[in-house]
Amino acid sequence: MGERLNVAVLISGRGSNLQSIIDACANPDFPASVKVVLSNEPDAYGLERATQAGIPTEIVPHKAHPSRKEFEEAMQAVLAKYDIDLICLAGFMRVLTSDFVAKWEGRMLNIHPSLLPAYPGLHTHERVLANHEKESGCTIHFVTPGLDEGPTLLQKRVPVLQNDTAETLAARVLEQEHIAYPEAIRLLALGKVHYSKEQVEVDDVEPYAPPRTNEIAAPADHTHKSKEIPSMDHHNPSSTHIDPAAIAQAKATWSLFAEMMKYSVIGSAGILTLMALSLL
Ligand code: GAR
């Protein structure tokens, strides 16, 4: 295959989205590779994930810099070492200045656990539940100076269920995040994404099928490790689930068939008895 897109992933913590990107890039046919993982938090678990995958890590602690500008200059100097084409913010919890954003315009993505423009910022799932929303999801968007703003590249939707807590909803959304980020990177790397400040157009392509990995969400996620939850993503026919309505329909058809068989056996027995009696 041809050139792969050089990706820098910026994190602040757990790094489960980072893991989904690492897993996708492990496939030699995937058109991107992670060149560096940069964290502003020295003890981010995502750094361990990168090290385990043999990916260089860089720590640029925001606290060590007196201003946002200096912090970003330090990040920029680090990124310059790696010939980066695309920055992926994956749980990177620092607001970036418009100078930094302008340097990477059209080449920096963010993931957010809501259907933007709804619910930017923190405590997304709590607010979705408080407003009794019927659905939620995640958004991959190009980064512009506003918080969780910028034109959307793709979204994945999930239902909000009646008994959901912020944790169960977060887990359901996170499962889709892990599909969305590699899919977005792949689309960009294949040249299928046409960016302008106002909007993004995406060509029609086969949806991304994520690799089957045993463990993405760790360590905090062990409690809500995923049951298969049906995706509502219409672009992803590979996401299969058994519809309970179809099961009920099949059961009803089968019991009707069994009932008909029972009466036809009784009927046949009756006819045979009558024939036997008429012969006597
Ligand atoms: C993800 O849910 C991501 O969408 C969110 O932080 C989490 C990071 O998880 N990002 C934002 O809220 C950005 N506004 P991860 O470290 O396991 O990938």
Q: What can you tell me about this protein's structure?
A:
Residues 219-252 have low confidence and may be disordered. The protein contains seven helices and nine strands. It is of the alpha/beta class and 280 residues long. The chain is elongated, with a radius of gyration of 26 Å. A hairpin with a 4-residue loop joins β8 and β9. The strands form two sheets. Strands 3-2-1-4-5-6-7 form a seven-stranded mixed β-sheet, sandwiched between helices. Strands 8-9 form a two-stranded antiparallel sheet. It is 37% helix and 18% strand. The chain has helices at 16-25, 45-52, 68-79, 98-103, 124-130, 166-189, 244-279, and strands at 5-11, 32-39, 57-59, 86-89, 108-112, 135-142, 152-159, 193-195, 200-202.
Distance between the termini: 86 Å
Strand order of the largest sheet: 3-2-1-4-5-6-7
Report the strand count: 9
The Cα radius of gyration reads 26 Å
| Continuous helix count | 7
Uncertain segments: 219-252
Distinct ligand kinds: glycinamide ribonucleotide
Mean pLDDT: 84
Name the shape in a single word: elongated
Briefly note the structural class of the backbone: alpha/beta
Query: N-to-C SSE series?
Result: EHEHEHEHEHEEHEEH
Biggest sheet layout: 7 strands, mixed
| Percent in strands | 15-25%
Helix percent reads 25-40%
Q: Any descriptors?
A:
280 residues; seven-stranded mixed beta sheet; alpha/beta; binds glycinamide ribonucleotide; 18% strand
